[in-house]
């Protein structure tokens, strides 16, 4: 009996190890071939919420807000919703996520939304230009040494194979060196699925430098507008399609209005000329041939 138990232990450990390896094995992004049946093969939502910092002031309600956002993306049918809160959003963990895990797992016909609720800081580069950064759980606000800089985020989006990437940052993050995207073309309004065929990297930030990310009784003012927008309020043309650019424009207007102009979000496209589809409506009919 004793020898049997001794054999069981290594077997259990081996099975556990194999299960762990299967969970952490990361298929190459290039493995996706052909076109998916819908617009995307897989939809990813990475939700980061940091409330009780080790070296920075707490942000009451940040995790509660982040969980609401994660639930909305589940309701929208996103396949993978990854939630990282407080100690799980350490500098080391976020670096691994951005530099290794996601670039290896996300495919070329996928969409990825990264939502961040936490502190942001700003530094000046060698040319005196402002460069923002996200502050992980174990990093101070006034130092970029352990933080996630705008340059690192740009490099992350360049390495990511996804067709569409959207960063939604509930923080004043500056230094993107880009301009606001133009409004929908006539083609885009009539056939949003055509916008979805082209690559795009889009960014929405909650405020500009020096502005405070405001809170109401319901939590973050920006998140409150985000939840409403994702639930359909941002589909301003009422065509059933919710595009990232529509959501960004809605957030800019709603938060500026709610704050009396004291908090001004930014909606930017930093790469590509497409537009992420957040909610898919009916495909536009081809014009009749006369």
Describe the overall structure:
- The chain has 290 residues and is an alpha/beta fold.
- The chain is built from eight helices and 13 strands.
- α2 (62-75) packs parallel to α7 (221-233) and α7 (221-233) crosses α8 (244-258).
- The radius of gyration is 21 Å and the shape is globular.
Defining key terms:
single chain, 290 residues, Rossmann fold
In short:
By secondary structure, this protein is α/β, with parallel strands linked by helices.
* Total of DSSP H or I helical runs spanning 4+ residues: 8
Terminus-to-terminus distance: 85 Å
Tally of distinct domains: 1
CATH architecture verdict = 3-Layer(aba) Sandwich
Mean pLDDT: 83
Element-by-element helix/strand order: HEHEHEEEEHEHHEEEHEHEE
Specify the structural class. Answer: alpha/beta
Overall radius of gyration: 21 Å
Topology:
Layout: H1 2-24, E1 43-49, H2 62-75, E2 80-85, H3 91-105, E3 111-117, E4 120-124, E5 130-134, E6 148-149, H4 150-159, E7 164-170, H5 186-190, H6 192-195, E8 200-205, E9 215-216, E10 219-220, H7 221-233, E11 242-243, H8 244-258, E12 266-272, E13 277-279
